[in-house]
Amino acid sequence: MSQAQWQVAKQLGFSSWPKLKAHVDALDFAARHPTFDVCDAARTTHWRCGNGIAHSLQVAGLKGQFRMLTDPLCMGPVRDLPSEAFRVMRSAFSSQAFALDPVDVARRVNDEYHQLEALANADHSVLWCGADAYDQLLLIRALAGLEQAPHKLELIEVFGTEHEWPRRALTLTPLGHAVLNGDAYWLDHASHERWGGGVCLRPRQPHWTLGDDHLPVWRG
Length: 220
Hints:
The protein has helices at residues 2-11, 17-32, 54-59, 83-97, 102-117, 133-144, 174-180, and strands at residues 44-48, 65-68, 124-129, 153-157, 194-196, 199-201, 207-210, 216-219. It is of the alpha/beta class. It folds into 2 domains: 38-157; 174-219, no CATH class.
């Protein structure tokens, strides 16, 4: 299969199948988003709080570098400390909270914040931000660290899509109404096991639950 793909790409003037696919994706994106326009060049740096849009930017034909700040600033301690101490604090939190290798986390945090500190001297940067806490705190952190106004800094708000999402009306079934009214117990009718609060709930199996008086009840 890979050999056939390479032959197809070569016949169409591309050095590899991934480059042909990227070209087709870019054409498809341009056809579906004719009004999409953003200033971009090889010197442009695009910033985001994660890598969720990295592939989409490539598909859209943007040529600039993609950078991300993965430090979850909406979680853990955020104190007014010197740069190095701040990085150590954030690295320690991330490695402990998410059970990650401390050396790898420290290396990534140092690299990301080093790149972010270069924002003031960059030729052209674009901040892609939404309305959630991750994005807003990236925006605050980026702007708060600027010692001078950048040559060119753009903000693009990610708030939705150009097209309406397909929608359909949702209604409760008679069983759903019975469960809400207390006339039926949902685990007696469930088709498969589910997890809730770290506990595996298996249909029609003995288990503890809460009664109407909010006291533990054994259902055998």
